[in-house]
Amino acid sequence: MGNHPLLAPEDIAQLLKSGAKTPRTVNSLNIIHEVCKEQFERGSKDFSYSTIGKLSERLGGPKAQPIRNAAGAVYRTLIDAWEKFSETGKSKVSAPRSQSLGDDVLSLIDDSVARVLVQNYLSENRKLKHENAVLKVAAKETVMIDLSGKTRSNPSGVEVVTPASFLLEQERLALRNAISAENIRKQGWTIDEQTGSVSKGPLPVFSPGFASAIRKILGEVE
Prior knowledge:
The chain is mainly α. It has helices at residues 9-18, 23-41, 49-58, 64-68, 73-87, 101-107, 112-138, 169-178, 181-187, 210-217; strands at 143-145, 159-161, 190-191, 198-200, 203-206. The protein has a 3-stranded antiparallel sheet with strand order 3-4-5, with helices on one face. The chain has a two-stranded parallel sheet with strand order 1-2. The radius of gyration is 23 Å and the shape is elongated.
């Protein structure tokens, strides 16, 4: 993975929990995370599956054997992350980051096919989280679903969800670059500002609405 910075265990834990299939797995990850955090804070370098399993078991978490089993891969990933983190000699645990984590993960993947698959997963995960948040708010108050992509003020506390909310920063940049003046010039294309179509001389490249749709998604037009 080259010289990419090591992700903090807090970040790894959040990723693993977001991909967990059952509440039980999430709870087990929380227990293992807390056990490893205590080991780290007391200055212990013992992050063996046996030790973590014993400590986890006392709190109702996975024992050593389930951690070693094939289904315990998520637990081993978190434990290994803490062990590597402890070896860096950092004095305190990094606070979990709420933004750009997905892009950090993508930057760690060298294989282009795997990177696309993970990017699709992260996008779908983000979309589902937003939809879940909307449903929670809908039970209490009015929700505005804004399909224009234009960012609007929200004085009444009503949640505004736009198409751009579901995009990773990398995806926003890709869309913006697709219709940037530099890319249009480099490809020898022209954009019909009336229809939003893209053409190269007499040949159509993208049908009407292409450029205008991207601008709406990015919130660049009303």
